UniProtKB/TrEMBL annotation:
UniProt keyword annotations, A-Z: Methyltransferase, Transferase
Domain THUMP: 60-157
Domain of life, per lineage: Bacteria
Molecular-function annotations in GO: RNA binding; rRNA (guanine-N2-)-methyltransferase activity; rRNA (guanine-N7-)-methyltransferase activity
Lineage of origin: Bacteria, Bacillati, Bacillota, Bacilli, Bacillales
InterPro entries: DNA_methylase_N6_adenine_CS (IPR002052), RlmKL-like_Mtase (IPR000241), RlmL_1st (IPR054170), SAM-dependent_MTases_sf (IPR029063), THUMP_dom (IPR004114)
PANTHER family noted in UniProt: RIBOSOMAL RNA LARGE SUBUNIT METHYLTRANSFERASE K/L, RIBOSOMAL RNA LARGE SUBUNIT METHYLTRANSFERASE K_L
Protein name: Putative RNA methylase
Organism encoding this protein: Paenibacillus mucilaginosus 3016
Length: 391
């Protein structure tokens, strides 16, 4: 495997593959293939650092070590053994194996993990001339994924999932993942010059992610990744990628981002997250019932994940809150709204059908992103001098 052209996989939550692919292309990598749950692209060692630092909506970044048909354990063993493990994994590395299998003859995941581990050890014995590996060094998580008897073997460069940005120390009940919050903002085509309001902000994830997007802050800047300690990726490449990211921050852009929630504890958590992200002064966060919210400005976006029983205590209260949002939204002719909900009645409660629905999964919960476009919303804003989202 040439280190100048590495095949990488950005894993994606179901329904967000196209968003992840767009992010990858915006990083400058145009050899992109999209499949269920994954976006494959080609890059170099620097691409590993850039993708980990910048991808807002992906779960993790994997090196695709190889892919081959594996109907028997011998097929799996020989296929894995043929891969260039010593190019990536040093002698003292810790290299656990994870696995999954779907619609394949090799259906025992523990057995497949054992075979892969044995094959990697055999290959490394040839290079390092030792019978025993201490596994006290850096962490290299190998995964074997079997689908329709095709084995895809990967190496995880990320470690803890990319949604762990580092700013959220506390959580509320049923928190929205950072990656999903970022996806909602990106799908809205909101831009920093426009107002944004989350009337059910909970722990503040949507406002914080929006501010990071508005200021072009790479979401991975405040954390580390498993592959930062890998000898195969020179430290200067990580330094280059981080320097690039710092240079691209646009913290001189004034933001109009507001969030509110009826729960005072949730707002405390939101304020702590905003402070940890370095954005406390940029966000307006308030304890308010949805009936009392007041938007500011024109051509704004409501982007929110309303409670559906859990956070407010019961379904009737949650229904009332969404009905109140519908009443307020009806009085905002230039605003658009993007509402993530698993409820089938949301359009009824809002008092009008959405203009577009997109199926997304918040964790394992199937939801729809209900999209309401104001008649004069984005287009009116463009007419009045705003910049195109594609600019």
């Amino acid at each position: 495997m040439s280190m100048d052209t590495i095949e990488l996989i950005a894993t994606a939550p179901m329904g967000l593959e196209a968003v992840v692919a767009r992010e990858v292309r915006e990083l400058g990598y145009d050899q992109v293939t999209t499949e269920n749950g994954r976006v494959t692209f080609k890059g170099d060692l620097l691409a590993i650092a850039r993708a980990n630092l910048w991808l807002r909506t992906a779960d993790r970044v994997l090196v695709k070590m190889g892919q081959f048909e594996a109907r028997t354990f011998d097929d799996l063993f020989e296929g894995v053994k043929a891969l260039p493990w010593p190019d990536w994994i040093p002698e003292d590395a810790e290299f656990p194996v994870e696995g999954r299998s779907h619609k394949s003859q090799l259906s025992s995941v523990p057995a497949c993990q054992g075979i892969v581990k044995k094959a990697v050890v055999e290959k490394m014995k040839l290079t390092y001339g030792t019978e025993w590996f201490r596994e006290t060094g850096g962490r290299y998580v190998i995964e074997v994924a079997l689908l329709n008897d095709i084995a895809t073997i990967t190496l995880d460069t990320t470690g803890p999932g990319l949604h762990k940005r580092g700013y959220r120390k506390l959580v509320t009940e049923a928190p929205l993942k950072e990656t999903m919050a970022a996806a909602m903002v990106l799908l809205s085509r909101w831009q920093a010059e426009r107002p944004l309001y989350d009337p059910f902000c909970g722990s503040g994830t949507i406002p914080v992610e929006a501010a990071m997007i508005g200021w072009n802050i790479a979401p991975g800047l405040r954390r580390t990744f498993n592959s930062e300690g890998w000898p195969v990726i020179p430290q200067e490449l990580w330094e280059q990628a981080r320097d690039e990211a710092y240079d691209l921050v646009k913290d001189d852009v004034p933001l109009q981002i507001m969030g509110s929630d009826i729960d005072p504890e949730a707002i405390k958590v939101a304020e702590a997250s905003a402070k940890a992200a370095g954005l406390a002064k940029e966000l307006r966060l308030e304890v308010l019932p949805v009936s009392k919210i007041q938007t500011r400005g024109d051509y704004g976006c409501i982007i929110t994940n309303p409670p559906y029983g859990e956070r407010l205590g019961d379904a009737r209260e949650a229904e009332r809150a969404v009905r109140q949002l519908g009443s307020i939204y009806a009085q905002l002719p230039t605003w658009s709204a993007f509402i993530l909900s698993p409820g089938k009645q949301l359009e009824h409660y809002m008092g009008r059908p959405s203009d577009k629905k997109r199926k997304l999964f918040n964790g394992r919960i199937e939801c729809n992103l209900y999209q309401y476009f104001a008649p004069g919303g984005l287009y009116g804003w463009l007419r009045d001098g705003g910049k195109s989202p594609e600019a």
